[in-house]
Give the backbone structure.
Amino acid sequence: MPELGRAALVVTLGLSVYALVAGAAAARLGRRRLAQSAQNALVAAFFTTVVASAVLLAALLRHDFSFTYVARTTSEALPTAYTISAFWGGQEGSLLLWLLILTGFGAAAVRLNRGWARDLIVWVVPVFAAVAVFFSFLVVAVASPFATQAAPPDGAGMTPSLQNPYMLAHPIFLYLGYVGLTVPFAFALGALLSGRVDERWLVASRRWTLFAWAALGIGQLLGAHWAYVEVGWGGYFAWDPVENAALMPWLAATAFLHSVMIQEKRGMLKVWNVLLVLLAFSLALFGTFLTRSGILNSIHSFTQSAIGPWFLAFIGLTMAVSLAFVFWRLPLLRSATKLESPISREAAFLYNNLLLLALCLAILWGVVYPMLSELVRGEAVVLGRSYYDFFLRVFGLPLLLLMGIGPLIAWRRASLRSLLTTFRWPTGVAVATGAVLLALGAGRSLPGLIAYTFSAFVAATIVMEFARGTRARRALGAESWLGAFSSLIARNRRRYGGYVVHASIVLLAIGVAGSSAFDSVTEAKLARGQSLEIGGYTLVYESLDERLAPNATEIRATLAVSRGDRDLGTLEAGKNAYTIEQQVSNEVGIRSDKLTGEDLFVIAEQIDPDGSVYFRVFVKPLVNLIWLAGLVFLLGSVVTLWPDRREQRRLVSRVSEVGVPATR
Amino acid sequence: MIALSVAAVLAVFLLYTSIAGGGNPSIAPSELAGRTGKVQLAGLVVGPVVGDAHAGGLRFKLKDIGGKAQTAVAVRYAGSVPDLFKVGRHIVVDGQLRNGTFVADPGSMITKCPSKYAPKQSGDPA
């Protein structure tokens, strides 16, 4: 069996090399049949990768410990779901997953677009193939998932913190996002290579970019929720290098999704868009490198491994080659129009891009600073939380405000007077919200107050847009309000899906501001019967129990919770002691208020032999809006991603007939 | 216009880094001797671990990860102790050296994930 897996990967490597060489030659020389053959090789590489993946999956399910990978990541007793998740739990398996998604996306994206963008596709194929060559080389020669050994009686098992439902989905979403960003990259490079730098590469890759971006966003929120409920330190995001690794390409892709609209509508920012795609893809590679190389002091680190230098070399090569192509095609990438006014939709989108990019690069600087300072000064200097928090506020808050302004301001040139009319209501709502919150005492955190005020502004613009659109549709036909509302969305999924996503970002901002700027914390050592008070809650430590679970001893402290005269029931917090793994883990107690979105979060930090417990208790207002934001984000992404033949046909005919972007 | 915005963004960045300064140097226990400033210390936990993290502080020693130098530094730590903390683990703490003991900032401890996917390291007795 391992031979079959190894052979399949060698064939994948061969097919990828062939697709690269033959594809490039065919595109250069204009050989149609050869180009078709290269395309077929890319599709075939997907199927051979499927074979290799099936072999690994079968080995995992059969507990075949003669596979080194299987023995290292699973054990006989591991539940089936986690045995499957071990596929991407380890380094070799996750590289194989990269390759699987890559070849799958590549084959699909090429097949779907070959009809109408043939001259572009012939160059996209070798780009995909080049990336596939790198990853198949890694799994063939550097980190093979099919290494074998004399089978031990049982495997080493899986770290308890990874034995968690979130770990089934979170890595998959992140990988779909990372790898998905290859598609716009391949199309951008294909456009440069073929010299067809019109908007077709954007149209062909738009949905893929959206999909990758949505998956990356959802993957991160799943990770945040996992950290919140399972890791048990009272937070959901810590600016850890590995968390930043996923955030950076997401920010770059967000900037790209916005600036694309400027290129489509006004023919501007062509170079900028190509550079953003290149940046997003490089950051996705860098993210994979960070998670897999163990170069940084991270809570996630996977220790040193052989793939690090290969990755750095590939990232360097990718950037150098792509930048050279951009430079080569610079004369073709000149803008069709110019920015006419600093107060216009184009300008607002441009500010949005600058801020997103500034935030992204500030984070990147923080991540690589320890390595740079090690090189320059001989000792690694680590930038702390305050560094990141500062830039999140300075760049993030204006970004929030722009989210309300950008979609409503006029193209080309807006007058100040028209701005006043457009934004009369939202500004009123924002000022009123700010005043009320100030009166309620929200002034103790200025960034928090600003975030709330801006959020109110953006929320008001979104509501206004939906109301205006629905009214307009109803005026057109004799539809019901509901009918008008749904046909409004169906007719312009991109726009209204975008608003829904914006609404989710508003929820996220409110949740983050509430739980970080207005939270409270207290800690105390309590003996049985003693109590503590926080944020209006009273907690009485009632009893301590020990239970035996199949794989762990569970120690739980029970607390009676009340607020004023109202009895809110009990809450359990404690620790699990895992017998075989010899690890202890915090099991936090969380009480969510469904009405206000507030959480009472209890950690039993230390349990003493005499039965007294050292508790750490947080009250986190509005934190549940963050998870709600995830659902709304998913809804908005689905709306924008929903197949829309009419729109696709319109875009296709527009760029293929006219060849230049139409202006509104 | 664009140049102005870029300049503004850059100015904010440079202003922050020059005023608030950089972060803390991250060093190994063997490099700690004689340093009085605030540092981030990354090392391998050496027992015995004694004391109470919430009363008087937890006491243990840290030595270099990778195990070239054998010098171990005494550490006092108060505050939240991560689940994964124990002898033989790699941890990171912020703090500074006072009278031969590294006094860690309360709640600054981070443990590194003991990944079972990776080959065991030379300095890791586990």
About this structure: Chain B is about 15% helix and 35% strand. The longest strand of chain B covers residues 39-52. The mean pLDDT of chain B is 77.
